Sequence to fold (585 residues):
Amino acid sequence: MLFQELAETYERLEATSSRLEMTEILAESFRLFDPTDIKMATYLTQGQLYPDFHPLKLGMADKMLLKAITFASGAKESEVQVLMLREGDPGLVAQEIISRKRQTTLFSEPLTLRRTYETLEAIAKAEGGGSQDLKIKLMSKLLSDASPSEAKFLSRIITGRMRLGVSSMTVLDALAVAFATKEDRDAVERAFNVSSDLGLVAEEMALHGLEGVTRIKVEVNRPLRAMLAERMSSPEDILEKLGGTCAFEYKYDGVRVQAHISRGEVRLYSRKLDDLTSQFPDVVAGLKRAFAAENAIVEGECVPVDMNTGEFLPFQEVSHRRGRKYGVEEAVEDYPVKLCLFDCILKDGEDLLSRPFLERRKVLESCVTEDDSVVLSEMRVLSSAEEAQKFFLEAIKEGCEGLMAKSVADNSVYRAGNRGFLWIKYKKEYRSEMNDTADLAVVGAFAGRGKRKGVYGAVLMATYDVQADRFQTVCKLGSGFDDANLASLLEMLAEDRMAERHHLVDSKMTADFWFQPRLVLEVRGAEITLSPIHTCAFGAIRKDAGLAIRFPRFTGRFRDDKEGREATTSQEMLVMYQAQLKQVE
Ligand code: ATP
Fold:
């Protein structure tokens, strides 16, 4: 098949914005294309060479492409640059320059789709010394044989500007129309949802029709599209919607990860199906240790943790781990994460998609050995809204966003690529900010681990209760310290060390070291929450809870102008809590 046929289809698609018309144009073209070429044609229509999850991406900087256009056409570099300034679209530049050239040259070899695809593939694969020249050479060869219209689309594809407006859903519509009937659309979409590979679905449809796509199954190392949740705002509504009983889980605030495990090899994919494997070697190692199964596909949330306190950290911390090519090892140490697993989609070759949620959970539990880095999500099957609300508060206290409610009915299958009420998210509506910093007294400390070996890993901080003349704990502080701060802390606290807890300190936590409450540090937190383990204003809001600062961070300021009793008071903390935009109650 000639690339020109595809370019003609693109010209027609470009001329419309109606989804219906696009579907008709595509369906018509699909029927005419050679079935063995349809896979390549489908990827190129999306501006890609492979499915989304393939690590190899096509791309070329505008500057390089303009060079290729210059070589292919013999035009002057300045001429090409001026045109680029005017048009702003390298596709239009290529079209114009190549059409000028076409008027003067007679010979060119027609481009087949296969040659076009394979050349683009060679460009994507070129790396190392001399690869830039090679890429330009390959592209200029393609362009010198291209028609103006082909040159336009080739240039857009290679610079990531193939914006025809054809979504994957439109391609699926067209495939159903071209090779089956509109009524078969769901079956075609199912195949896409479990494979995430539009090219594969197109090829199966073209070669074998509906039968072909129904054979497409979940496979290890081919990520499926994530199941998504609807949202509701009260446990009562959720329970009613889910038939009176459902599974509630912590809703972790991190990065969703789909892990594919096969004979000890692990690959990780993001919610958008990007390959995350190289960025999370610690999660890969954790999964290798945790899994007994021969092969499996599991899902979970990768959450940043404070290695010293074991607490979850704000989501932003995990962003330091994303998109890295270099410094991965340092990032693993500096920003440790924990994987909280919540679903199992395949185990030992058996596809679990159509099994009810609790069965999948059982399988997950049976094949995972939990450790520091890989755990199962916290889950409770509940029928009472009150209990659910309690669980919700617990989740918030632990640094989670709220709860995920999951249907436990017979039809609670895993719906790849679908958003529906089988999963319902129940989140805190407002993330209330702590408006002010607090000056807190150091009353205890915990021995450092890992990079903090030899210094304090975290310190136990307290407010001062003016009425009772007591120091009451409000958080365990581990973030915001640099190496110099940690060294100073060791020195500054040396003289305050005590053999046991100071008699004025109220603490439910047992620290490794205790201090006379003298040193004051300035601390900023995300918000103030209720907590059964901290003693600040205990019982003032709820009889079994005190106040705690969530995600505390040292601002870098040692308040050496203050002494212990000048720390923020428990009474002030209470006012700050009440002033928050929305309290969690
Ligand atoms: P969505 O994924 O629904 O489009 P979003 O990306 O904004 O929306 P949220 O609305 O916060 O995410 O909720 C869904 C996400 O919550 C999931 O994609 C997953 O990453 C995360 N999550 C955390 N804990 C769980 C859990 N226990 N079960 C399922 N998902 C969880």
Remarks:
- Confidence is low (pLDDT under 50) at residues 581-585.
- The first helix runs from residue 3 to 14.
